[in-house]
Amino acid sequence: MNIGEIAKRAGVSRSTVSYVLSGKRPVSDGTRQKIQRVIDELGYQPNASARALANGRTNTIGLVFPPAGNHYTGMQLDFIGNVVEAAAAKDYDVLLSPSGMDSDRSFQRLLGERRVDGAILMELRLQDDRFDHLDSVGLPAVAIGRTAHPENGWWVGLDHTALAEACVHHLADLGHRTIAFVNRPEQLLRAGYESAHRGLEGFTKAAAERGVTSRTYCCGDDASSGQACLERILHDEPATTALVTLNEAALGGLYRGLAQAGRHVPRDFSVTGVVAGRWAETVTPQLTAADVPAEQMGRLAVDLLVERLDHPEAPARHHLLAPPISLRASTGPAGTG
Amino acid sequence: MNIGEIAKRAGVSRSTVSYVLSGKRPVSDGTRQKIQRVIDELGYQPNASARALANGRTNTIGLVFPPAGNHYTGMQLDFIGNVVEAAAAKDYDVLLSPSGMDSDRSFQRLLGERRVDGAILMELRLQDDRFDHLDSVGLPAVAIGRTAHPENGWWVGLDHTALAEACVHHLADLGHRTIAFVNRPEQLLRAGYESAHRGLEGFTKAAAERGVTSRTYCCGDDASSGQACLERILHDEPATTALVTLNEAALGGLYRGLAQAGRHVPRDFSVTGVVAGRWAETVTPQLTAADVPAEQMGRLAVDLLVERLDHPEAPARHHLLAPPISLRASTGPAGTG
DNA sequence: ACCGATTGTCGAACCGGTTCGCGCAAAGTG
DNA sequence: CACTTTGCGCGAACCGGTTCGACAATCGGT
């Protein structure tokens, strides 16, 4: 079922059908209705590939995310879902591309073969060569996160520095003097993951300002690593009474480690960090945390990208978000011990 | 940068370049190398839309999943990631489509505009009209889950009936006589979600066989619903000493409810169910559960679909999986109270 | 030296849309 | 009534690939 068939049945030329579909030229009421009726009867929809070829746009955006090798966190997954829905609302489809795999074939295909009009990048690194690849083929992109030089880029990011600082201040205000920081895995920190770096930076800075004793740890993205990490924390410094974490996947393990060490949360030990709200509420006690606004970020990223696609020369824009800490049940005053 | 440009620079015709790329006709060593050199220098990759138009295949598969309105569970998200990776390994891209939204525009586009060669359906219902839509446009599909008449379909599914039965037997073997079943939300059950129906069926059957007292509940897909559900369970029948759940998202809430009711797991109360392994390990105590093999299922679904695409007339195949229950720490002998 | 088979390359048509310029007929103007 | 304007629809060209039939050059055999 193609446009030629529609034209034939309606007794008009292919171009006229096209103009009815696009509305880019006026068509008389009579022929329009005649054509429309045929279209409706046959349930005709124009072929996406042909249309993409003809007008140079695929109406598809690429979502570049890290491979599952290192488990997905709930946060990443929330992003994916929300980006897809925001895009669907604007009549864009979303093509998923796991990047960071062996040869990155999928990512290269996405770009080189022009399967997409633009891309949204997740899990940003401070120096992110994916931008270079995108620039070199002239594909617009929007990042979820900031590189080291965010001034003139398109992105929507979380102010991990401020968020980590806020967590330290919150704990210091409660009287905690010895605080640990549980970061993402070391391999990601070394790779330059921006959240890991900026969070660490904020934590370190605020800890120094408040004069609290601090140690920082890297921790694998899973429960058992979290448990092991917590054991190390208490082994290294038994006087630790609180921790801040960016590592959502390890959270369950951290809690378990605390329970096994006989530390009651929040009476003996406070836990806080940066976590998607929905996941913060699944643990007991519910986590006091800066809730990652995944839905808003997904929507904003799509909005920015679509704007950029529609106005190729528009000046760069971005959104830096710093959601407040939601007080729940995992933090409390430092024990008077 | 198109194939004509390559041809011009190499001093050959477009068709010869095409044959070098596809290898569908022999090309002499000399010209092949000449062409290949130009291609490499310019980093040329053929345009995906043009190729799709010409040979009628997009090399893309659609992944149809439910919208996030009712939160994603970890299991669904694991599927998505694993499907994308399995597809990438076979040089297929994955287009995401949230179905079940207002007018399902995205799903319709996927099919009607032939953006994909085939589709993988998640969150199956016993009567799933998405199959009819797919059939009507002649797109092959593979389901993750089974309809009411799975005999001659293509799918990879979990034997929720057997799994729920196994959970009941496990608990009954431990001496539990009063067991609750926590299902997915009522709205999903009414919509005919197959996991909810088959799980319920298996639970009910096994409970009857073993002569245990049972009640079944529907529960929202979030922690607070889980907590509320547990309160109802203990209110309805304080003698309940165990539960089986299919509702991963509610798990944290169920645990919290138990803690607040003063029931210690597993000493006073046993919990088990069907959950993705990774999530079963984040709760404390770690959940004894039938681990959903998300990775294997994602891979199998892609394998089946690709096979179906390559051999359109191949007879239907499917895989019914029934992973064993992984013994962890959330179940124990019924109290002698 | 001639003929048939083989090998390698080319040109043209096609996939299914979009878009531009043109021609024709009806309507508007003096 | 001749002359421009306007409104509609058509045909052709194009987007960037793939594929088929034709043809020239080379090869082996008698």
Describe the protein's architecture and organization.
Chains A, B: GO terms for molecular function: DNA-binding transcription factor activity; transcription cis-regulatory region binding. Chains A, B: Keywords: DNA-binding, Transcription, Transcription regulation. Chains A, B: Residues 1-55 form the HTH lacI-type domain. In chain A, strand 1, helix 5 and strand 2 (93-98) form a beta-alpha-beta unit. Chain A is elongated, with a radius of gyration of 25 Å. The relative contact order of chain A is 0.12. Chain A has 14 helices and twelve strands. The termini of chain A are far apart. Helices cover 46% and strands 17% of the residues of chain A. A six-stranded parallel beta sheet of chain A has the order 2-1-3-4-5-11, with helices on both faces. The first copy, chain A, has a six-stranded mixed beta sheet with strand order 7-6-8-9-10-12. Chain A is of the alpha/beta class. Strand 2 (93-98) of chain A pairs antiparallel with strand 2 (93-98) of chain B. Chain A binds a DNA duplex (30 and 30 nucleotides) through residues 2-4, 12-16, 18-19, 21-22, 24-28, 31, 46-47, 49-56.
